[in-house]
Structures are given as C-alpha cells and as structure tokens.
Q: What sequence folds into this?
C-alpha cells in the first residue's frame, strides 16, 4: 500500500524533489522541481548537475549543497540559497538534503535526495519589512531631536511656541508608533501617509534654530519660504485650466535640463482637457515622473508623453524604454518608505544623469497629491529581461549593451509607464500641431 501511494504523493508535492546518484546524474524528479528550476525533462538523464546548473554564478551555493552530498557524503537540514534560472529569474530556495538508503547499495553509492521550496515571495516580503522598519527607525530621529531641543526651551516661562512644537512632534511620534504596530500586526493603516508632518517638522526646526541664532534669521527665513513654496499645498484653481500649456512647458524644461543626455522625449497631445487641479501640482508631479524616466532610461532611449481624452477625464501617460521595475519593487514603489535597490547600490549624481540617486520623495509626493486633489496614479512596468534583478546593472547606453544589436531590441526588452488620470470638466481642440505618432 505504501509503495502504491509514494509515487502519487511525490508527483503531487508542491516542493521540488530531485534524486541524484553518486555520479551526479539526476535519476528522478517531480513536476514541481522541473517547473521551479525551469529545466526540461529530456535534459535530466543526459547531463550532470554541473552541466545543468553551473552556468550561472548565483547557483554556486546550490551546487555546493549537491557537491557536499555526492562527494563528501554530507547532508543539509536546511539552507537558503539563490538560484538563477535560464530565463533570468532569480529565486530564493530553501533546500534540504538526505540520503536514499537502498538495501543492496553501499554507503558510497547511495543516492542523495534534494527537496527545495521556492521562498522568493516570502523573502521579498521579509526584505520589504526590514526596509520599512529601517526607514521608520530613521524617521523617528527627526521628531525626537526636535522634542529634546524644544523641551529645553520650556524652562522659560511664557514660551508657548516651544510647547506647541513639543505637542505637535509628540503627536507625530504617537502616530508613527501606531503605524508601526499596524505594519507588524498586518492591520491596514488608519490613514494614508501624509507629507504634511514632515514639512511641519522642518519648519519647526527652522523656527527653533532661528530663535537660538537671531543673526541667521534672514537666511533661515529664505529656507522656510522655499520649503513652503515647494511643499505647502495650495487650494485648487478657482476655474478650469487647460493642461496642454502645462505639459508643453514641463516637457520643454525637462529637455533643457537633460540636454547632456541622448534621450528623446516625444509628445502626443491630440486634444486638450480643462481641469480644476492647481497647475503647479500637475507641473510638480509631471516634472518628477519625467525626471525619473530620464534617469532610468539609457542613452539612445526614448520617452513619450501621451494625452488621451476619456469620458470625464484626461489621461496622461509617460512611457520610457528604460530598465524597468521588478515585480517585487512594483508592489512597493508608492509606499513611501521603500527603496527598490539596496542603499549601497545607489549613487548620488546630478539630476537627469542615468542612474542618478534621488531622495525618494517624488512618487510619494505624487501619491499624496493624488489623494488630496482627486487624481489617480498608476504604474505599469516590465524589467529589462537582460538585467532581471535589481543588482544587475545597465551600461547606461544602448550602444554599449552587450545583449542587443539595435535600439529596437532595447525598446522591446523592458520599460515603464506612469499614468495620471485627471478629472476633466470639458475638452477643446488643441491649437498646437500634433507630434509624430511613431511607436516606441
């Protein structure tokens, strides 16, 4: 009865299973193993594990486990390793090994049984959790510093401003504490993340420093005015405004600032829409999205700004032929505390250069603006298949890529589209000539 059940059980397992003989050949596998490792059944019995998995450097740890079982006769209870499939996907695997004992086999001839599970999604969530907690920990430093500095001033009677600063930042700390608790326990956050407390903290700190250093008051006032200009939210425009002038202006400024780059920026605006959103909000949002597109598109690439008029709305899409975003990062980019790549892989460079490291606020600010002013922000992206992992680097120019023969191949390999859907109250014909409609 047991023999009758063993084969169906192995075949139906969600975990992958491989059995290797003492010469390193795979003598048995189940469907989950073939699917997870992306190998074909006909390859199994004609190649050793070295021929199958040695090609990718990331597979060294996986191969070491097999080598230790076959050559050193050592097994592993549990180990997490990376595995690069032939299609470019990088997996996190949890691997265990044991010996398959057969009565007429000598110990040296016993097969090694390898059982593994794809834990890529679990590891991705764990990495996201660690990054969130790390950013939240860093976020606590600013309000704590303000509280401590302001508290010293409370010893002076009648200093109501300092007391107010303490109260505001204590409220912020309590809010962060509740958000952390919600994240840890998996509950939905009570409210959306807001940029306003950050602005308030900066302005509080500036006011505090100005009180302690009156001679610097003028310079600090200029900084305060600039912060309020860039980050304070204004009320929406009183009447409908056309978006075409805003778009043309923003694209023109982006072209000027990215003049050192060999990146085409095309416009396709077949009609115009009247919207009630503050023009400065649209300009800031589109500027951030365009800069992000330029910084992630290699020289020789292309960016298109397209406006479509749909019922009661205007849809603005910014499509680039850049490196694209991995599926893991795509889930997190609007979260506000998430960075797609590890900190050490970011570079601090001038804006609009390829791979320039940013402050990470543009997409968060765009999401917040959307919540405040009633427009939608979406992102669709395909990671370049030649650099499927975040640690894989693009050379920064189409003509320096070793994987492609021409620009078209680059354009087809990956890219991103950010879509803004703005409420529209009316439409009117565009007075400007249409740009050419060549496909990306």
A:
């Amino acid at each position: 009865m047991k023999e009758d059940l063993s084969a169906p059980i192995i075949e139906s397992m969600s975990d992958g299973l491989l059995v290797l003989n003492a010469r390193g050949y795979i003598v048995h596998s189940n469907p989950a193993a073939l699917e997870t490792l992306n190998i074909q059944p006909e390859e199994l019995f004609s190649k050793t594990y070295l021929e199958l998995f040695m090609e990718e450097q990331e597979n060294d740890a996986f191969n070491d486990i097999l080598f230790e079982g076959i050559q050193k006769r050592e097994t592993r209870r549990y180990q997490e390793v990376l595995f690069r499939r032939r299609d470019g996907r990088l997996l996190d695997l949890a691997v265990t090994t044991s010996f398959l004992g057969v009565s007429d086999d000598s110990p040296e001839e016993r097969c090694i049984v390898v059982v593994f599970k794809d834990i890529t999604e679990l590891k991705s969530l764990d990495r996201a959790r660690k990054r969130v907690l790390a950013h939240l920990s860093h976020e606590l430093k600013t309000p704590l510093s303000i509280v401590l500095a302001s508290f010293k001033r409370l010893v002076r009677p009648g200093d109501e401003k300092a007391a107010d600063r303490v109260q505001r930042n204590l409220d912020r700390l309590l809010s962060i504490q509740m958000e952390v608790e919600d994240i840890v326990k998996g509950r939905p956050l009570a409210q959306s993340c807001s940029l306003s407390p950050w602005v308030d903290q900066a302005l509080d700190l500036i006011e505090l420093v100005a009180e302690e250093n009156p001679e610097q008051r003028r310079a600090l006032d200029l900084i305060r005015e600039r912060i309020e200009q860039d980050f304070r939210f204004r009320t929406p425009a009183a009447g409908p405004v056309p978006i075409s002038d805003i778009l043309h202006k923003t694209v023109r400024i982006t072209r000027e600032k990215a003049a050192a780059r060999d990146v085409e920026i095309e416009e396709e605006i077949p009609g115009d829409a009247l919207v009630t959103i503050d023009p400065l909000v649209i300009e800031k949002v589109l500027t951030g999205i365009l800069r992000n597109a330029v910084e992630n598109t290699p020289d020789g690439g292309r960016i298109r700004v397209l406006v479509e008029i749909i019922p009661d709305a205007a849809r603005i899409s910014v499509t680039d032929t850049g490196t694209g975003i991995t599926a893991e990062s795509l889930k997190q980019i609007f979260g506000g505390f998430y960075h797609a790549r590890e900190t050490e892989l970011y570079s601090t460079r001038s804006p609009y250069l390829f791979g320039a490291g940013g402050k990470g606020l543009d997409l968060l600010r765009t999401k917040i603006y959307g919540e405040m002013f009633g427009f939608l922000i979406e992102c669709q992206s395909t990671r370049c298949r030649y650099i499927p992992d975040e640690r894989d680097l693009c050379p920064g120019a189409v003509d320096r890529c070793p994987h492609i023969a021409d620009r078209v191949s680059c354009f087809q390999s990956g890219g991103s589209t950010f879509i803004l859907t703005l409420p529209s109250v009316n439409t009117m014909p565009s007075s400007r000539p249409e740009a050419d409609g060549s496909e990306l």
